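Students often ask why inverse folding is considered easier than folding. One informal answer: many sequences map to the same fold, so there is more than one right answer. In these notes we will look at a single instance of the problem. The structure comes first.
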């Protein structure tokens, strides 16, 4: 298939491009480089020894997207491009709603115009809000606690309505749990700009800050702040379903290869089905990589829940997908990626 990947140079997008190319699909990337860099294109091409077609455009620019469709016969779209920082979305809701909703509306409008009927949408476990029980199934009630989450939920509703109104239009909604890890080549991974909000990138910074042979000394990374140890979980710290980003990427490959068998809108959880606490992740990272991650317990982060992990059996039964990598693989690959990054750039 010829697949258009929006946000294809981002963390999940880039790993997905690799899997698509390895699966012999043609890849066209549209990315405005808001949260990515152009060298990621070269890295994807180096890993796969294949070329991608690249457009530096904003998905909110309908004319630019229309031009891409005029120049290429696109069979399917995987739509990653979006803002994704929860805290920022609380401060800048208009920016989040405008970007994350307009981009999807544009993509769908242009797809319908050009008779492209296969869309994979990048959603999140955040749409389950406070889950009624665990593990989480796709038919659980939906709710959100922040504008970022609401953009995901509203996008899901928009896509549901578009599928209802256009009988040939098919949509696969993938609800990601917590992606971590990096490509085994160490050429792709997550290295957020500024102080990270998410747990794994923060653990990585603290660990490298504590390694004597790096120049990454920074007071912000002297200790990990563990947000609360009074949750209703085995060790009191928050439990999440961490999934290796390469497994997640493979889920997208399975999705586009199943459009023939599906109709209308379809929702799938992409997780491992296993929950690990903050301290589980810290201890595993320390053990696997032989490093120290000093931490202190601080108060809860507003909006966090006790525990969240997937029932991923629907993706297995219908798409033939399941996660292969375990938590040790995730910790090792994150670390190796960061070490290579420090070697190449001199710092994180
Ligand atoms: C968050 C978002 C989710 C988004 C995902 C992206 C919320 C409510 N959810 O998930 O919508 O899709 O990021 O990956 O914000 N923690 C610490 N110290 C830290 C950072 C995190 O103790 O410095 C803890 C948190 O309290 C939580 C766990 O680590 O228990 C995971 O946090 P994080 O990596 O931020 O992911 P989520 O909050 O699960």
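Output (designed amino acids):
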């Amino acid at each position: 298939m010829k697949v258009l990947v929006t946000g294809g140079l981002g963390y999940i997008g880039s790993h997905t491009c690799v899997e698509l190319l390895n699966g012999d699909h043609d890849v066209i990337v549209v990315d405005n480089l808001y949260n990515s860099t152009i060298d990621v294109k070269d890295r994807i091409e180096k890993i796969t020894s294949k070329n991608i077609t690249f457009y530096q455009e904003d998905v909110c620019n309908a004319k630019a997207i229309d031009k891409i469709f005029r120049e290429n016969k696109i069979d399917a779209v995987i739509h990653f491009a979006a803002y994704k920082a929860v805290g920022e979305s609380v401060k800048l809701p208009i920016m989040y709603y405008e970007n994350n909703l307009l981009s999807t509306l544009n993509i769908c409008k242009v797809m319908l115009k050009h008779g492209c009927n296969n869309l994979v949408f990048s959603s999140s476990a955040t749409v389950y809000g406070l889950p009624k029980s665990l593990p989480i199934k796709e038919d659980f009630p939906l709710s959100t606690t922040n504008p970022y989450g609401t953009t995901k939920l509203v996008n899901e509703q928009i896509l549901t309505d578009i599928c209802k109104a256009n009988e040939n239009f098919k949509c696969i909604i993938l609800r990601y749990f917590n992606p971590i890890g990096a490509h085994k080549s160490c050429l792709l991974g997550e290295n957020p700009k500024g102080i990270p909000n998410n747990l794994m990138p923060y653990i990585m910074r603290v660990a490298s800050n504590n390694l004597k042979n790096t120049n990454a000394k920074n007071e912000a990374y002297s200790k990990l702040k563990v947000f609360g140890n009074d949750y209703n979980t085995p060790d009191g710290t928050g439990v999440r379903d961490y999934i290796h980003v390469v497994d997640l990427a493979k889920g997208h490959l399975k999705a586009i290869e199943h459009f023939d068998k599906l109709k209308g809108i379809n929702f799938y959880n992409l997780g491992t089905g296993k929950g690990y606490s903050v301290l589980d992740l810290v201890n595993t990272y320390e053990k696997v990589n032989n490093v120290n991650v000093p931490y202190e317990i601080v108060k809860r982060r507003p909006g966090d829940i006790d525990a969240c992990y997937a029932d991923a059996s629907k993706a297995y039964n219908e798409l033939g997908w399941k996660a292969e990598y375990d938590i040790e693989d995730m910790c090792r690959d994150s670390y190796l990626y960061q070490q290579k990054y420090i070697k190449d750039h001199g710092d994180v």
